[in-house]
Structures are given as C-alpha cells and as structure tokens.
# Entry
Amino acid sequence: MAHTTHSIEELFARPFFDLLFEAHTVHRQHFCAHEIQISTLLSIKTGGCPEDCGYCPQSRRHDTDVPDEALLSVEEVLAAARRAKANGAGRFCMGAAWRGPKERDLKRVTEMVAAIRGLGLETCATLGLLREGQAEQLAEAGLDYYNHNLDTSPEFYGKVIGTRTYEDRHETLARVRRAGLKVCCGGIVGMGETRRDRAGLIAELAALDPPPESVPINLLVRVPGTPLMDQPSLEPFEFVRTIAVARLCLPASRVRIAAGREGMSEELQALCYFAGANSIFSGDVLLTTPNPKRAADEALFAKLGLRSCAAGAEAAAATTDRAAIHDEGSGPRVHA
Ligand code: SAM
Ligand code: DTB
Ligand code: SF4
# Structure
C-alpha cells in the first residue's frame, strides 16, 4: 500500500513503544538485528561549493572555516581507502563539494572507483547533480552506490536550498537508477522543519520505485557561519521516531544514522538501532565535521552485542538475514 504523508504522520503520532515495537518487528523480518553496515566517508573535493544549501559548511556563500581545496589525486584517495579497509569498513564513500562533476573531474573519480574496487571494498560517490551519460560512466567504472539526497519535503525544500530544485534531484536519482547503480537517498532532520515535513520526506523516499537500497538520515550538524547554525536541536525521541518510521516505510532498505551521531548519547544510538537503523559512518570525520571515534563505536557495539557486516555481504544479506531472524547472536564481534 502506498504511504501518504498523512498516513506517515499517523505512524509518527503513535505511542512511542508501539511505534518502536512495530519497527523492530519489521526490522527483524528483513535483517539480522545485530548486524550494522559500516561505511567510511572521504571528502575528495572540499569546500568552495557554488550551491547555497543552508545547512552546508562547504558552500562558498557561507562564512565558515572550511577551506576551498582541489580534487584529491587517485593515490591520495586509494591510501585513505586502504586505511578504511584496515579499520573494518565495508564501503568507501567519496563526497565532492560540487553542483555536479565536470567531465575531466568525473574521469578522475572513475579511476578512483576502479582502484578502490580492486581492494574489495564497495564504493559510493556523492558528486551532486549528474548530467546525461555521467551515471553510466560511473557504473562502467564499477561504482556500487550513488548518494543523492532529497533532503526534506518538497514543501520545506525551498526554504533551505535555492540553487537547484527538487525536480533536479529527482532527475539525477532517475539517471542513477537507469544506469543500474544502487541508490543511496535520504535527508536531513533538525532544520526547523515540521513533523509533517519529515513525514513528507519519508513519503517521497518510499515512493521511489524501486525504493533506495540505502537511506541516510542526517541530523543537522549546526556549523557556525551557516544560515542554520542557530536552529534549536531536534527532540531526541523525535529522531528515534524518524528512524522507526523510515524502517516501517522502507522495510528492506539500510537505514543509516548519518551525520549527527557525534552529539548523541549511547542510549540514544541504541534506541535508533532498536528502531531499525542498521548502518553508520565510521571514522573521526564525516566530510568536514566530527564523527564519534572508532573506539567509542566499538565499545558501544560490544555493549549491545552488535557486529559489523562483512564487505560485499549486502547481496547475501537478503537470504542469510532472513534465516537469522531468530538468531540470538553469538556475542559481539566488534569490527577490526
Ligand atoms: N555536493 C553534493 C550534493 O550536495 O549533492 C554531495 C555532498 S553533500 C555534503 C551530501 C549531503 O550531506 C547533503 O545532501 C546533506 O544531506 C548532507 N549534509 C551536508 N551538510 C550537512 C550538515 N551540516 N548536517 C547534516 N547533513 C549535512
Ligand atoms: C549523507 O547523507 N551524509 C553524508 C554523506 N551523505 C555524504 C554527509 C554528511 C555531511 C555532514 C557535514 C560535513 O561533515 O561536512
Ligand atoms: Fe555544495 Fe553539496 Fe554542500 Fe550543497 S550540500 S553546498 S551542493 S557541497
């Protein structure tokens, strides 16, 4: 049944324990509740972005401390990917502060993708809007996932971003899908949007056909100098509700606690994992902002009996995880 914004708002409004219980039940029908997919992020082109996204420290229109740097070399990126692999990441995600890639830059990114694939890591890239033929070039190089977020509801979108439209974003998502890439698409909460906007975002994500394989839920990182720096923080239980509702509406997708984990208590993260989050970014920085230390994530995984998925386990997960629904887990296996 199609989810409407209204029906999703009703999910949000349910008593907290009913919502969590149902989300966790659905979670177990599709995944092993103890396995968390781990991605590592690298900013391959930092700062100086021409776009005006109100949340973003990398826009050149905002007065932040982020420098404008050149695109990294293939060697630099490959060295970072080797480190990420040694630290237990299964997927290596590359972000670039562009409106979209120029052909010459895209060529270098395709070289990065091919080299990282050779290490046995899954690859993901987030390079902004793609033009005709660009998604195909990335697919040919062996890219697994392309990340492009809808960010918020269509109604709230214009209050945060003026330089590209919701339609532009849908067009890129369609190109990515047509090229045969897996789609990573989510949004940001805590930007001053209403619950209806959060429901509207999830309705848009769930209406993508097929739904995105990976759904990052970012909690706004309030960076000094950005227009959203003074936003009041989102009520923590509302964040957990957002994860739970995303799990219910996107039952087979990986739901990621993306940005914003740095400020979250262990208890809040544990509630998110229970509510259906089963993916995180690991490593000291996201693109430009801090992320929890790996040792802290490992300690929490050990306390909760969570373990990381092996690289490339996604395809197998659909079958083995179903068999493991009633698996009580064999104790914590902390990622290396
Ligand atoms: N420039 C490309 C684009 O915007 O499509 C790719 C990189 S961009 C930084 C990727 C995503 O990071 C954005 O869509 C947004 O959801 C998220 N993001 C950026 N700044 C953030 C912040 N301060 N807090 C939370 N999420 C943020
Ligand atoms: C996504 O949804 N979140 C990641 C990834 N996709 C590229 C980025 C989060 C960025 C947070 C702000 C920063 O570190 O600059
Ligand atoms: Fe540029 Fe992406 Fe940041 Fe928007 S979110 S300002 S497009 S780097």
About this structure: The CA atoms of residues 266 and 300 lie 7 Å apart. The chain is about 40% helix and 15% strand. The beta strands are 35-45, 91-96, 122-126, 145-147, 182-184, 187-189, 214-219, 254-257, 279-281, 307-308.
